[in-house]
């Protein structure tokens, strides 16, 4: 493995393999998973072996390429029909992060542009290039988010984050964590408070792992401790990622984010969302339209192999919540910071990016 944080890697040419870090094994094991077919990519997304909004978009784009490998290359009509089936299949893996749908739609647009080609092989190669472009562009978006976000953070700040919006959730470097890594690159000391992020512990297992790896001061807390840590004056800013942001700025992110935003408001602490424009869904006016993924209750009753609740108890396990725009101080994108978070400001910054 070239780097322990090479979240997603394509090996080979058009007939290749998608290699992912299996994030369910972190932080104890850094193990790669080779996907040779679209079914294994779907399973990896569903089971959160690859997770985080931009990362699942990239994985799905490569998943389409894998799924098209065996299609008769001579018949472009058959090729396009199969592409539609695969698009629907991959889109059924997880409902909330819009990057998944954005990436799949972009792949289909590219194929449609080439649909008059006599051979599916030409389209297949072009789709691999498109998936690689989505992957490479995400690297650049993440770096730019870090550059725009770092000036918002004063040296010596305590920063609270929730879930994992780091290199593991993106091509590399992350969104929320990109801001922290940029502070570090600039020699600005920070101290990150990491919510463990129940029930699947993306904060404890993944964010703490990334911060420790990079030598950034990190303190792990249970989600329920955030209010106390804020009251003690240890937090000067909150920065989180996003799975889908609507036209008015409402933001879906990992369950518990809304609680953190409410606490930040109560303590007068700025609350920032860091996300590329590929995470915006301008077809939805408000967060009420965002589909919230419901996951198995066993993630709560049998977390990490041990039963911690009585058999027969009812469980509710939404994987995401929506933070209303009015609780968000600013949204840091690769094109700059949206603040205040109003519909006009969101659309002015994001619409031109999504039109390209
Ligand atoms: O269920 P997950 O682990 O995929 O949830 C991920 C998050 O909520 C992240 O904060 C979000 O996708 C942003 S990743 C840059």
From TrEMBL:
InterPro entries: IF-2B-related, IF-M1Pi, IF_2B-like_C, Initiation_fac_2B_a/b/d, M1Pi_N, NagB/RpiA_transferase-like
Domain of life: Bacteria
Functional summary from the UniProt entry: Catalyzes the interconversion of methylthioribose-1-phosphate (MTR-1-P) into methylthioribulose-1-phosphate (MTRu-1-P).
PANTHER family associated with the record: METHYLTHIORIBOSE-1-PHOSPHATE ISOMERASE
GO MF annotations, alphabetized: S-methyl-5-thioribose-1-phosphate isomerase activity; translation initiation factor activity
SUPFAM superfamilies documented for this protein: NagB/RpiA/CoA transferase-like (SSF100950)
Site (Transition state stabilizer): 163
Keywords for this protein: Amino-acid biosynthesis, Initiation factor, Isomerase, Methionine biosynthesis, Protein biosynthesis
Name the record gives this protein: Methylthioribose-1-phosphate isomerase
Active-site annotation: 243
Family from the record: Belongs to the EIF-2B alpha/beta/delta subunits family. MtnA subfamily.
Amino acids binding substrate: 51-53, 94, 202, 253-254
Pathway where it operates: Amino-acid biosynthesis; L-methionine biosynthesis via salvage pathway; L-methionine from S-methyl-5-thio-alpha-D-ribose 1-phosphate: step 1/6
One Pfam family of this chain: IF-2B
Signal peptide span: none
Chemical reaction(s) catalysed: 5-(methylsulfanyl)-alpha-D-ribose 1-phosphate = 5-(methylsulfanyl)-D-ribulose 1-phosphate
Coiled-coil stretches noted in the UniProt entry, renumbered to this chain: none
Organism field: Pirellula staleyi (strain ATCC 27377 / DSM 6068 / ICPB 4128) (Pirella staleyi)
Any one biological process term the GO annotation gives: L-methionine salvage from methylthioadenosine
Enzyme nomenclature, EC number: 5.3.1.23
